[in-house]
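> example.struct
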């Protein structure tokens, strides 16, 4: 694959693992490895345990492996030009930010659903989440926040608790988020179709156009979803007073980081090449191309994961163990357990 072939295939995002990739790949591997203990702690600790970020946890572990392979290939000619390894690396790069985006949608859903729950003598909503403002905190939270067991001032809590339940709003939030989840799954399927044919595209040029089309379609769909998540959280921040500001801002920031990855991919995927190690313009192997790759693809992904792992998402978004996983309330229009 080191010599130019007579056919073209879609350029691999990030280019081939060259010698210039050795140091940044090691740094990326170490940075993700540092997040693995924190990610596992979030799953083990009772205070932060939640399956809502399970995909991001798996992504963090996978990134350690993928950047380790990239580091190895940077100093090994055989691995560097391996269609199989390059296909794996492209699969990992193309699916990572999709996985984080799915988890971010689940956080937004829990946040919005909680904001619609009125006062009730229940600890959690139908989703298994603990609605903000209106229910008693755990004993540990009560110790931290005062004897009344609520977070915030009692006056503010009384005002929130006096607000009625909003089952219709909750219904539509669940419907829209459910549709978005299905679209995410569709983007994954399209992405898989694209990356599965990447190996043949590199070896024989077969299905190159299909691979390019599927990669573009997947990236475009995910970018639209991430923009929708960002605008949804921003709208809630400005127009829905029952939605807490800090979690909404958090979702906007993380979604913008992931959107940077999507925009970058749409730009660089326009190029074609005749060799994995080609140094032709657009082949993504020049020094400036590598800088852009680590700046606009690798760094935003790591920052997004670091933010998600640093905060206690279960407490910030009141996700409970599984987040909001129901499509409707069980009875009476009110979210109940």
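> example.seq
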């Amino acid at each position: 694959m080191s010599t130019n072939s007579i056919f073209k295939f879609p350029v691999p995002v990030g280019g081939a693992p060259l010698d210039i990739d050795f140091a940044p790949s090691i740094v990326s591997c170490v940075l993700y490895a540092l997040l693995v203990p924190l990610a596992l702690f979030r799953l083990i600790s009772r205070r932060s345990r939640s399956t809502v970020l399970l995909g991001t946890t798996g992504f963090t572990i996978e990134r350690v492996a993928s950047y380790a392979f990239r580091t190895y290939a940077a100093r090994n000619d055989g691995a560097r030009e391996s269609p199989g390894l390059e296909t794996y690396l492209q699969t990992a790069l193309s699916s990572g930010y999709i996985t984080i985006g799915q988890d971010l949608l689940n956080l937004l859903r829990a946040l919005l659903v909680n904001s619609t729950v009125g006062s009730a003598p229940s600890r959690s909503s139908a989703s298994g989440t603990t609605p903000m403002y209106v229910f008693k905190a755990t004993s540990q939270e009560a110790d931290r926040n005062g004897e009344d067991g609520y977070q915030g001032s009692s006056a503010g809590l009384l005002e929130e608790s006096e607000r009625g339940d909003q089952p219709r709003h909750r219904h539509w939030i669940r419907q829209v988020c459910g549709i978005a989840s299905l679209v995410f799954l569709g983007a994954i399927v399209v992405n898989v179709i694209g990356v599965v044919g990447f190996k043949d595209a590199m070896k024989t040029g077969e299905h190159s156009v299909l691979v390019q089309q599927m990669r573009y379609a997947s990236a475009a769909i995910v970018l639209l979803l991430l923009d929708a998540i960002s605008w949804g959280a921003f709208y809630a921040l400005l127009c829905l007073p029952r939605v807490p500001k800090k979690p909404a801002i958090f979702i906007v920031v993380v979604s913008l980081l992931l959107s940077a990855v999507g925009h970058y991919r749409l730009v660089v995927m326009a190029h074609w090449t005749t060799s994995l190690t080609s140094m032709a313009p657009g082949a993504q192997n020049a020094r400036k191309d590598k800088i852009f790759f680590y700046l606009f693809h690798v760094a935003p992904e790591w920052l997004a994961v670091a933010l998600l792992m640093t905060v206690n998402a279960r407490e910030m978004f009141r996700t409970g163990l599984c987040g909001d996983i129901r499509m409707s309330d069980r009875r009476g229009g009110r979210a109940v357990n």
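> remarks
Residues 121-162, 332-337 have pLDDT under 50 and may be disordered.
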